[in-house]
Amino acid sequence: MRLVLLPVLLAAAAIAPALAQQSPPTLSSIRVTGDAKVTARPDRVQIDVGVTTRATHSQEAAQQNARDVDAMLAAVRKSAGPTAVLKTISYSLNPNYQYHPNGAEPTLTGYTAANVVQVTLDDLAKIGSVIDSAAQSGANHVQGIQFTLRDQDAVRAEALREAALRARAEAEVLAGALGLKVVRVLSVEELSPRVMPVRPYMGAPRVAAAMAEVATPVEAGTLDVTADVTLTVEVAPAAR
After folding, report:
1. Separation CA 224–CA 38 (nearest Å)
2. Quick one: which of 61, 114, 58, 59 has its CA closest to 88?
């Protein structure tokens, strides 16, 4: 009996290391990216209006700028209404120099004070009148207009959802074309949705009081919110 069992035990001992050396089965996967774009009409605007004043002395420039800004703010608040939000986003007081070509010391010619106020407005119909009232009351430049959304999260979520569905559909198409099927999603990567800025058309502000009845035209247009979602899915042979 011992002579019979010994070869069997030796064979089992030889098989065990071979089984231990086998690597686990690898997963087959497909990686795809889906993108989406959602278009929405803006319902909020931020207008940057500024007052720049120049004077011989720094105190004179600062005081004149303060008077002009106070007048501008009063006019803008009246035109924009009580729901508008106004805040100063930049202020500067800098010397002005005349530079000479012969390398001599520059000559101080005066000072420039600049104050830029951002007006946040939810009533887009008032954009033109706000710009005009600012110009008529002392503002001498409009630094920028940016259209946004009060609730950006809802539009961003919609863009992400559409991008994810498109990525899953592409994975299904690729798997089917290769005779495979999608088993499960292994990983998901998303790029933060991006809001594409609008470059509005804006006519020149009317500074003459006689033209105040015609507001500066501004076209809001639409906002494009884009998103990208990358899926990695496990695939397996489709059932025959």
Report:
1. 6
2. 114
Q: Which amino acid, one-letter code, is at 181? A: K
Q: Which of 23, 25, 18, 95 is nearest to 56 (CA)?
A: 95
pTM value surpassing 0.85:
no
Contact (CB, 8 A) for 228 and 35:
yes
Q: Is 66 exposed, middle or buried (0-12, 13-18, 19+ CB in 10 A)?
A: middle
Residue 222 domain-assigned (yes or no)? yes
Do 142 and 214 sit in the same domain of this protein?
A: no
Tell whether 6 is covered by a domain: no
Predicted pLDDT at 101:
85
pLDDT at 208: 39
Number of folded domains that form the chain: 2
Q: Which pLDDT score, from 0 to 100, does residue 97 have?
A: 94
Regions of the chain with pLDDT less than 70:
1-27, 192-193, 195-215, 240
In terms of C-beta density within 10 A (0-12 exposed, 13-18 middle, 19 or more buried), how is residue 114 classed? buried
> How do residues 177-190 score in pLDDT, each as one tens digit?
999 999 999 999 98
What pLDDT does 197 receive? Answer: 57
On whether the CB atoms of residues 86 and 70 are closer than 8 A, the answer is no
DSSP for 68-87, written as a single string: HHHHHHHHHHHHH-TT-EEE
